[in-house]
Structures are given as C-alpha cells and as structure tokens.
Amino acid sequence: MTALWIILAIALVLTALNLLPVGVDAAYADDAFSLSARIGPFRLRLLPKPPDAKPKKEKPPKPKKEKPKKKSAPPDLKTILGLAKLGLQALDRFRQKLRVQRLRLVFVSGAQDPYDTALAFGYVNAALGALTPLAERVLRIDERDIQTGVDFQAGQPRIDARIVCTIRIGQIVVIALAFGVGFLKQKMHSKQARAARAKTAPATQERKVSNG
Predict the structure, then answer these.
(1) pLDDT by residue (tens digit) across 54-69?
(2) Among candidate residues 80, 105, 98, the one with its CA nearest the CA of residue 162
(3) Of 63, 106, 188, 191, whose CB has the highest number of CB atoms within 10 Å?
C-alpha cells in the first residue's frame, strides 16, 4: 500500500510539473542583452545580474602562453535560416498552443559600405519573408511589431528585439527531442554531402588535366 501511495505522489508531481507554465522574456537593444525566466507567477532575472548580487572573488591570473587566436567564421544566412526553420518545425506539433505574448523586432541595416548595407537589408527581409508564415502557423502571437529599414549614414546595424513567451515544461521536453533529432539529421546530411563532394573533386581534377 505504501508503494502505491509513492507511485501516486510521483505521478501527481510529474503531472503538476508538466502543467506548470514557464516563460522567457528576452530582449536585445543598444548592444545589451537581458534575459528573465518565469516560473508560474514568479519571475527571475538572469541577465544582467541584479545589483545586489555578490561578485565572485577574482583569482590572480596565471601566466599563460599566448597563442594565436583563431577567428571563427560567423554562421551564414543559410545556416541561421535553416536552424530557425528547424526550430519552428519542432514547434509545429503544438500548433497554436504556444503563446507569444509579445514579439518585437526592429532592424535598421547599416554598414561602412553602402553595398553591404543594402545586401544585409535584403538578407533580413528574405529571412523574415520565409519564416513569418511558418511562425504564424505554429505560434499564437498576441502582440507583434516587426520593422526593417536602411540607414546609409550608420556604420553598423541597429537591432531592437524582444520576445515574451510561455510554455509548459512537458512541451519543452518534446520540442527539445524533436529539435535534437532534426539537428542531428541535418548535420548528418551535411557531412554526407561534404564527403560526396570530396570524392568527386579528385575525379573532376583528373579529367581537367587529361583534357588540358
């Protein structure tokens, strides 16, 4: 009988956790990022840290040998668009059940070169044009404000974004599993494509040499 009560208590706790709404309030503006987590009626600010947070004691830095830093190439638009599309597809199974209370994105393209300014403006609009219909089908958006613009006098782009959304813990687990499986499939297909190109490259080079 005791074992039955334990099983019922565990099932009750798991059910309560599954139904507990959690949320995220993330914003980016003026090169500053803020992030808050919501658990039921409670709100916890994660970034930036509260002023009363005790700073960690800094240890004296140890002398390290300087190594040349390798600059990692930023992800291209195709990669970013693919990951965003993959995430929305993972959310598709909860169609219109995930609530976005507020979605704001203001992007003003700017760069040192006017050509780069126009190019970035076109990239962003192309990405929004591809992702917006999928997001509207998957999410229930209460308030939306999306604007794009161009400033040829600015030396860098200006981004003002914020998203406030809520979800249940049980949904997070399912979405994470779906996204993980899709991401692994995407990486596997990319690896196979690179291997296929690597195999065909020597043969192509040999044909060019023989024909030359």
Answers:
(1) 555 656 666 655 555 5
(2) 105
(3) 106
